[in-house]
């Protein structure tokens, strides 16, 4: 497992900032995005990361007020057999 953590708190992520961090998300073992104003498009990206990152074991998305579509997108990633998440918040 990777020992790397990505933690972003209380930041309304712009599309440019999201595009900047997205490629590196595939290398983290823990991703915490607290109160980041996640959009449905960002949730689709997170779903892809869940399917592509075998070292990701913890995902935390508190205080993001995900809409139904965004939550469904994350759920699709979690249900993928390649997803190794052990802890979800």
Which helices and strands appear, and what pairs or packs with what?
Layout lengths: L4 E5 L5 H7 L8 E5 L5 H13 L5 E3 L7 H12 L7 E2 L1
Parallel strand pairs: 1-2, 2-3, 3-4
Keywords: Acetylation, Cytoplasm, Leucine-rich repeat, Nucleus, Phosphoprotein, Repeat
Pfam family, one: LRR_RI_capping
Subcellular location: Cytoplasm; Nucleus
Features:
89 residues, alpha/beta, Leucine-rich repeat, LRR (right-handed beta-alpha superhelix), 3 helices
If you had to describe this structure to a student in words, what would you say it looks like?
- A 4-stranded parallel beta sheet has the order 1-2-3-4, with no helix packed on it.
- Helix 2 runs parallel beside helix 3.
- It contains 3 helices and 4 strands, in the order E-H-E-H-E-H-E.
- It is globular and about 30 Å long.
- The chain has one domain: Leucine-rich repeat, LRR (right-handed beta-alpha superhelix), CATH 3.80.10.
- The protein has helices at residues 15-21, 40-52, 68-79; strands at 5-9, 30-34, 58-60, 87-88.
- Helix 3 links the parallel strand 3 and strand 4 (87-88).
- The longest helix is centred in the middle third of the chain and has 13 residues, at 40-52.
- The chain has 89 residues and is an alpha/beta fold.
- Helix content is 36%, strand content 17%.
